[in-house]
Amino acid sequence: MKPVEKPVSCDIARGAPAVPRDLRLLAREYFELTKPRVVALIVFTAVVGMFLSSPSVFLPLGPFVFGTLGIALAAGSAAAFNHVLDQRADAVMNRTRARPLPTGQLTAREAFVFAVALGIASMAILALGVNTLTAVLTFFSIIGYSVIYTVWLKHTTPQNIVIGGAAGAAPPILGWTAITGQVHPDALLLFLIIFTWTPPHFWALALYRREEYAKVRIPMLPVTHGVEFTKLQILLYTILLTAATVLPFATRMSGWLYLAGALALDARFLLYAWRLYRNYSDGLARRTFGYSIQYLALLFALLLVDHYSAQIREALQSALY
Ligand code: HEM
Ligand SMILES: CC(C)=CCC/C(C)=C/CC/C(C)=C/COP(=O)(O)OP(=O)(O)O
Hints:
Order of helices and strands: HHHHHHHHHHHHHH
CATH superfamily of the largest domain: UbiA prenyltransferase
CATH architecture of the largest domain: Orthogonal Bundle
Number of strands: 0
Shape: globular
CATH class of the largest domain: Mainly Alpha
Low-confidence stretches: 1-14
Helix content: over 70%
Number of helices: 14
Mean pLDDT: 94
Bound molecules: protoporphyrin IX containing FE, farnesyl diphosphate
Structural class: mainly alpha
Distance between the termini: 52 Å
């Protein structure tokens, strides 16, 4: 469990900052509002979507730069809205109580203004520098995560993260449309991979954090349906994920290099899910959650390397001979 380093303030309702402000610290708190590590992986999946949409390594510079920036700002905006809208539950759970709003480092008003500013900047950059389709789809992703998931689904149904997962799975589509202006079926495969990955990713964490979720009455699957059922769902979704990861090879979007690497990653994920199912421990659930993140990063890196394998081989050959 992460140690809580910051003092916890009760100033949420009054909206006043509880501690003196230092500009560097303040910048760090704002940065923290964007969930930077999550957003980094989200942006990576979007960038992979961009490269996979084109046979050339050289993407049109404007859509590439503005697309990446716009998607990153949108994801950061959605994350900041999530901090504002979930501040009461965040103040109670150990994992989240050191966040900028529960500690009083930032007020809800400051976080809200920041979220709106990032959202507007993202929309302006995407609409003016990329294309309308990407701006519109990104707008729906922001609403999907910050309103539909955070305000509604998260607090009403244990299927919250399955349905809400669509927003987190959208970025490869956004990357693809940023470059081509079209939603291609191959982009939907990338969406499907993240969509089926989200339940094992999140439920592994929800298992070892189940008491905290119960404390704040958030109906996550282990709280409403218990550990046994959640372990089974993780296993079933990991099997579904394995099937989804074969599709890029089956449709010839990706080649043998991708298939071999993806199956190796899948085998390890399935092993984690199987061991969790047979012999549960909080420690194993924590390691499964950690692996889920490595898994997605490596899988998307594989898609990219496989896509340019011919160019990489040629470059290596000309460097060697
Ligand atoms: C509905 C969908 C999702 C849910 C409910 C979810 C939930 C979570 C939670 C609760 C954490 C722990 C954060 C913490 O340590 O405080 C986490 C971490 C993480 N998630 Fe997800 N996640 C989802 C989708 C995604 C997506 C789409 C990505 C990337 C493509 C992603 C990448 C990550 C990463 C990289 C971390 C580690 C962050 C860190 O080290 O601080 N997640 N996720
Ligand atoms: C392009 C675009 C707008 C994408 C938005 C996608 C986005 C920011 C997804 C975040 C996924 C995530 C960390 C969910 C956890 O929320 P939670 O509230 O369950 O977790 P918490 O308890 O850690 O806050």
